[in-house]
Structures are given as structure tokens and as C-alpha cells.
Amino acid sequence: MAKGLTKRTEDFARWYNEIVQQAELADYAPVRGCMVIRPYGYALWENVRAGLDRRFKETGHENAYFPLFIPRSFLEKEAEHVEGFSPELAVVTIGGGKELEEPLIVRPTSETVIGHMYAKWIQSYRDLPVLINQWANVVRWELRPRLFLRTTEFLWQEGHTAHATREEAEAEARQMLDVYADFAENEAAVPVIKGRKSESEKFPGAAVSYTIEAIMGDDRALQSATSHDLGENFARAFDITYQDADGELRFCWTTSWGLSTRFIGAIVMVQGDDQGLILPPRLAPIQAVIVPIWKTEEERAQVLGAAEKVMADLSGFRVKIDDREQLTPGFKFNDWELRGVPLRIEIGPRDVRNEQVVLARRDVPGRDGKSDLPLSNLSQGVGEMLDSIQAALFERAVAFREAHTAEPETYDELRRALAEGFASAWWCGSAECEAKVKAETTATVRCIPFEQPDVGGACVVCGADASEKAVFARAY
User: What confidence score (pLDDT) does residue 250 get?
Assistant: First the structure.
């Protein structure tokens, strides 16, 4: 195990915290509940951001920025919204040495301030739709912080859109959930379940909340991104209106959607193993590390020269040469395994003579993950290997989810299933049944999946007729 890393099966929470710190993704800040994202972790976030930002722009969205401070009266305009966020708010009461006339809320989310601005900007149906995203930080006071997963301050993107009709807003909310699912599965190799949140779990102030849910390596669920159809709720609270083609004044229909740095935690917990991180190649800050191996000064010159040429030939990939002196190849192997670099390229004197390199896959340990690659096929071979790793990580994660998802038919079966992973079961939709499960198992309804059986069944809790299955799980 790298640097005494705790085994996942012994203490998953400790394993997670050790990986995040030892792989230099993040560290604890002086303020309780906050974190410092280190360069390696921030490079991973930048790749997440780039993958999402490209998708947002392809669907017609533009980036903007809104203030960090929000007047408290703004949150009070939407009753359900302020009630939902009140326990998490950070409030500024003094500025410039003087007590403020109105306290300011440090941004927990931006529906209110953006709603205020949309009310100024939108006048006519010709101004619609408004499709804006912002990359920002938010603050939600966290009682039980964990690096990336739950921190008082975190980074995210939040999209906010305004539309002329309910149908357009609903289509937007569903479209953006599809964008998140596509990103999670095709770039992060994290399989997700798309679905609708229950009434008790939906975003405060939303008409409908949609989510993508993923299973972590300890069988718990992580809400990985959400998309909300806000109906007319915020439009009515902030008077976001437009004049339609007939000259009538109507309220807009709005949406909001977001993904945060907690998704970094998802990548760690879905992909990692006892040696450390395993990063999906499409997001990894370093896709391949070249480790030159030599004993004599003559071999050193030959091997380093070959390594430089290999790096030049792989200019289309994110590649690094580890030419650190006074460190053994074994130490370097373990170090890069801890950091989750998908592919290691070894070059020794024999490889130089044979005009080849040795590839070592991070996802397949030992000799089984090693293969020789001729220099004449270097770029194509590395590209194919990275694609193979990306696909294998996703397939492995899907297999894990399937192996840890049960379909209980009785309440006793449900309780046993929730101790080992996800439970897909019929649910009548009642708040009473949902509350009973939560009180007795700590599990919640993670979502009502879009994909449903053609026929109904009996509620796993009360036995009443049910038309939908829900996914129950303990969650972060």
C-alpha cells in the first residue's frame, strides 16, 4: 500500500481522506469546514470544468458572473427557498466597521439575485429564452465537513434560465440533466441513474427536481448533479415577466441546475483502490507518466534522450517525464499509482535497444497490466490504451452497481438490502412511507428513475398499490 494507505475494506472514510491528502488533491484550511484545493486537484477540477463548459456552450448557454453577497430580503421573497436554506446560511452584519442596514447573505445559491436581474433584463417574448451559467464559489455552513464531499465553501457551476412556457422550461431542465449524465459516464466513467427527486428531497422552491445518482465504493449514494424546473415560483417572487406576442403580460418559467467540486469526491470513491486514485484518462491531469530507468551514467544519457523523444511524439496527450534523481523506479511507480495516473510508460536500456517502451495500466495491477509497445506505433498505441482504460473503468463501475443493487419485495428485504447498497423497490409515493424508511434505516429515496417497468406493484413499505419504483439508499 502506498505510504501506509488504509485499505478501503477496513475503513472507507479514512481511506478516502488519506487519498485526497496524500495524492495532493486537497488539504484542510485554517477555517473549520473549508478546504484548500491543491494544484493537482485543481487541474482535475479544470478538466471537469472544461468538459462541462463545452457542453453548456454547445447547448446555447453563455457564462456570466453574479455577486457573492445577496440582500437577506431577497431570500425572504420565496418562502420555501429561505426555509430550506436558513440552517446553512452565512450572514454578514458588519461592513467597513459599521453595522449594515440590511444583513447580507454569502451566496448559498443564486436563484434570488439572478431572478432580480432577470426581472430588469426581460421585457418581451423577444428577450427569451435567457440561458446563463456561472462558475463560482458558494457557502453553506457545514456541521460535518469532509474534503470535497461536504465543505462550507465549495466551487461549482450554476445554470439559470428563463423561458416563455412551462414546456420549454421542463425541456431545459431535462436536457441539462442529460448533459450531466453524458459527462459523468463518458468522461468521468461514473455510471449514474437519472430520475426525479421526491417532494421531501427536492430543491427548496422548485416545482420538480431531477438528479443523477451514483453508487460509491462503500455502497452509499452520492447526488452527483441536479437540475430543477422552478415553475413560476421565482418568477412570481421576483416579478420576472414578459409581454407576449399578443401584448399580454405573463410570468416567465425558470430553471436552475448545478454540479460542484463534490464530483471530485465521486471520482475518488468510484474508481480508487488500495493503492490510491485511479483517474479516468479523459479527465486525468496527467494521462501518462514516463519513468526512465537506468543504473550507469551512460545508460542515464541514453534513456533520458529516448524519454524526451517519446514525450515529443506524444504531444497530443497530457504527459510528464519523472526524471527525479535519488529516487528508485519502485518509489516512482508507487507515487504515480497513488496519484492515479492512468498509464505509466517505462523506458530502460533494453527498451532503448529494442526501440520500444513498456506500458503499465493503472487499472490492472502487476504483470497483467503490462505490455510492450514499439516506438513505431507509439502515439496510436498509447491512444488506444487510454481508450481501453476509460472503457474498462466504466464497465467495472457498472458491474459494481449491478452487483450492489437489490430489488426487495418486502420491508424486511428492503432493510437488509439497504445495508449493502441500492434498493430498487415499489413505492406508493407517500411521505409517511418515505419517513419510516429514513427513520429506521437512515436511507432516503434517492430518485424515482425515468426508466420504469410497464406494470405496477405493491409498495415495499405499506403494501399499497404503487405505479413507480424508487431507488432507496444511504447517502453522503
Answer: 98
